[in-house]
Amino acid sequence: FDRVLGGGLVAGGVVLIGGDPGIGKSTLLLQALAVLAPHHKVVYVSGEESADQVALRAQRLQLPTEGLQLLPEIGLEAILGTLAAARPRIAVIDSIQTLYSDAYSSAPGSVTQVRECAAQLTRFAKQSGTCLILVGHVTKDGSLAGPRVLEHMVDTVLYFEGDTHSSFRLVRAFKNRFGAVNELGVFAMTDRGLRPVSNPSAIFLSQHSQPVPGACVLVTQEGTRPLLVEVQALVDNSHAPSPRRLSVGLEQNRLAMLLAVAHRHAGIQCADQDVFVNAVGGVKITEPAADLAVLLAIVSSLKNKPLPAQLAVFGEVGLAGEIRPAPRGQERLKEAAKLGFTHAIVPKANAPKGGVKGI
């Protein structure tokens, strides 16, 4: 969590964290406050659960609650009065969509209520030096609910991602005035709450006993952290007039572009083939450095020939067919070597002059 925040919480800073219902936002913040409570004055404002429900969750997670002040309240004026009297170092508002101000007649969760409640809480945080963490709901398309100005008000915007059917959760920073954006934190959901994953690359790599066609290991960069992710492709004869082009975890338009580049510059024909591409582990990859791994996985599946074992790949593919360099190439290669990879295909500009030990 500290990694995603850029090193930790900042006095007077306002953090907004959003995610799907039941993904673990409240659990993560309750665990964080339980760790901070012995050293700092903390307040947990719950607008969605009663005090007994929060206490029951803390008991189930076996969290120490000494020093943790709990306030079940949704009235903004009452919350500000309590915070002004208590003067905590850290306060959590769970959630901003449940709050309302008596100064406005609209319902809680409306645009006016969310905007004004967030504005007054942000003003309090800046004036008092209290670090404020706001929990936000998300819409059906995954964006934060409420007015867009909410994201502009705060200092940091975090998204909690992950499949509810999987035990792994990803916390990603989309805005951070105090650290790197696109930073990634990986957690595992257990019966004792969320636990950090020390080696997240292991989640995104399939454990094949033998190399299989259509699989290629990509070294991607999430913020300051290099990650190894397996990209899988399946190319099959199409039985429909329009062959399907489906990608999960990768950009659909970029897949279409890469297939066009492969056809034009390498003579690889997929016009009558269905092409499916997937990033293992549910991770979303947006950087162009994944291009080369996607193309190699597609060609491997098309030819039904596996790529060599312990091979790592990264590089951007241009429309002219050239392989363009990726940022932080040295760090990517070191991460691959650390996980036992012995060979790498990288852009020429990323090839280290002195080499990387093990590769």
Continuous helix count: 9
Distance between the termini: 32 Å
**Strand line-up of the largest beta sheet:** 3-2-4-5-1-6-7-8-9
Instruction: Describe the global form.
Output: elongated
- Name the CATH superfamily classification of the largest domain: P-loop containing nucleotide triphosphate hydrolases
- Identify the CATH class of the largest domain: Alpha Beta
Topology order in helix (H) and strand (E) letters: HEHEHEHEHEHEEEEEEEHEHEEEHE
At the fold tier of CATH, the topology name of the largest domain is Rossmann fold
Helical proportion, percent range: 25-40%
Give a short account of the largest sheet: 9 strands, mixed
Molecular structure report:
The chain has 359 residues and is α/β, with parallel strands linked by helices. The protein has two domains: 2-198, P-loop containing nucleotide triphosphate hydrolases (Rossmann fold), CATH 3.40.50; 215-350, Ribosomal Protein S5, domain 2. The chain is 27% helix and 26% strand. The protein has nine helices and 17 strands. The protein has helices spanning 2-5, 25-36, 51-60, 76-86, 111-128, 149-153, 252-266, 291-303, 329-338; strands at residues 14-19, 42-46, 68-72, 90-94, 131-136, 156-161, 168-176, 184-190, 193-196, 215-222, 225-237, 245-248, 273-279, 311-313, 316-317, 323-324, 343-345. The strands form three sheets. It has a nine-stranded mixed beta sheet, sandwiched between helices. The two termini are 32 Å apart.
